[in-house]
Specification:
By secondary structure, the protein is α+β, with helices and mostly antiparallel strands. It is built from six helices and four strands, in the order ααααααββββ. Strands 1-2-3-4 form a four-stranded antiparallel sheet. The chain starts with a helix and ends with a strand.
Amino acid sequence: MASTDHARRPARPPWVRFVAPAVALLAAGAAGWWLVGRLTVPTIAADEARPIAEAFLAELRTGKADRIDAAWAGTTAEFKSNQGQEQFRKYVRGQKRLAEPAEFQGSDMAERNGLRVADCRFQARTGPVRVLLAWEAERWKVERVLVE
């Protein structure tokens, strides 16, 4: 009598055929969840955005070239490409409102030119100042300063 391998093997339960597809689906779902988390811009609460924007404005308020340069150095690459260091110094010195103390009014997440930013609003004696923060290189940096 000839023996065959399949005759000796015990019968597999019917659910076994679903194990490999289920594991593959779970792996794909985990990879997708991780990717979405990496590509999504985080949000920042007002109490976290405030010190970043206030420190930036404090550097500008000094009017000293080395402090203005330090503030510029901490901005986003987009900010730097739009406004060179020397041009930024001239802008800051030309905006007298940036030399005034400014009181924090609030911060909201917003969309500006397709970029998700934290819009920090301040009120100086002579008018409003806004500092926009953007997520870059795993941290929040100044994307724009607006004297309105």
